[in-house]
Specification:
The protein is mostly helical. It has one helix at 15-66. The protein is built from one helix and no strands.
């Protein structure tokens, strides 16, 4: 059974459809950008914690050697 379309406008996207698609695309782009920024800040924080831990280890080693 073939479908018959009465007008050509039934298959076109409306302005509302286009705006919804753009909005969804922007949300996806912002989510991806936010996740990339969060990953960088987590790596930076882990590096700072590692550096502080190393400084504490050196200080402890110096106190043990001193005694």
């Amino acid at each position: 059974m073939k479908m018959k379309f009465t007008s050509r406008h039934e298959m076109a996207l409306t302005l509302l459809d286009v705006l919804v698609l753009i909005a969804i695309g922007l949300v996806v782009v912002f989510l991806v950008a936010a996740s990339i920024g969060t990953a960088n800040s987590c790596k930076r924080s882990a590096t700072e914690i590692n550096c502080i831990n190393n400084l504490k280890q050196v200080g402890l080693a110096y106190r043990i050697w001193e005694g």
